[in-house]
Specification:
2 domains, Arc Repressor Mutant, subunit A, 40% helix, three-stranded antiparallel β-sheet, alpha/beta, Rossmann fold
């Protein structure tokens, strides 16, 4: 990146509304968002937001495409990566300040399930809070729900103090291909017993599968469904506590997959030491 490109990008970002817009757009990935949704998230009038989005587009930080009558805005992953590399290109790497993960960054974890509306949404929210600063966490589905995460799941997470503002249902293809951000760990939560299948990703540190029941198929009264959801949350949280405590950087791939895969067994969650070796 040339210095004049970096200067223009930093100038465009030097305004709070534009920074807020980028913060909302980055988790949305290549799918992006229409202006109205971004404006609603930020509580900013659409006309005002359009002015700021135009400045970000001119600086190359935002890409725009037309979908029917709507303009869809997406953060430019390439430009943001180039900008970060421009800032850090001469930063000494003595190991003292480097975070774990590829190229000294946070470890990237992707959770998969069928509709990306319940199990993977729970996992995304839980690990984001458990491993704040250590992980970049995303989720996706093979057949993502068009109506977004299940309201019961969002209500449960909110009641337990999790941030639900950035949660959405999306297709796993957002995390595949040359333009996608690399992923270190892919954990599938599909219920294989019920015939659900999740894709495997090549070139990651480890793939693992924790087959879990689909909350969309929970039946019974409101109280009974709430009990099942609480049990699902507790079991998933325990797995992720153990996962976050594993030596994820130092273990070889086969050992990693064995250790992470073992967490699919409910009995492993109650083992002495809980896998925290």
């Amino acid at each position: 990146m040339k210095i004049y490109e970096a200067s223009a990008a930093f100038a465009a970002l030097g305004q709070p509304t534009r920074l807020d817009a980028i913060e909302v757009l980055v988790p949305a990935g290549r799918a992006g968002m229409p202006v109205g949704e971004i404006a609603q998230r930020l509580g900013t009038p659409a006309s005002t937001l359009s002015f700021h989005l135009k400045a970000l587009e001119q600086a190359g930080l935002v890409e725009v495409r037309r979908d029917g009558r709507s303009l869809i805005h997406a953060a430019s992953a390439r430009m943001l990566r180039d900008l970060a590399q421009f800032l850090l290109r001469d930063l000494p790497q003595d190991g003292a300040d480097a975070a774990p993960g590829a190229a000294g960054g946070a470890l990237r974890v992707l959770f998969l399930c069928t509709r990306n509306s319940a199990r993977s949404i729970l996992a995304e929210a839980i690990l984001r809070d458990l491993g704040r600063g250590r992980f970049v966490v995303c989720s996706a589905g093979t057949e993502p729900a068009t109506d977004g995460p299940m309201p019961e799941i969002v209500a449960l997470l909110r009641a337990l103090g999790h941030d639900v503002s950035g949660l959405r249902s999306k297709h796993w293809s957002e995390f595949s291909g040359e333009a996608a951000i690399p992923v270190d760990f892919v954990i599938a939560l599909c219920d294989v017993v019920a015939g659900q299948a999740c894709p495997e990703f090549e070139g990651v540190r480890a793939n693992a599968a924790w087959p879990l029941p689909d909350p969309a198929k929970f039946s019974g009264s409101v109280a009974e469904r709430a009990t099942l959801l609480n049990e699902l949350y507790a079991g998933l949280r325990r797995r992720l506590e153990i996962f976050a405590a594993l030596p994820l950087v130092s273990l070889e791939r086969l050992a990693l997959e064995a250790r992470i895969g073992a967490l699919a067994d409910p009995h492993a969650l109650a083992a002495p030491g809980g896998g925290r070796r």
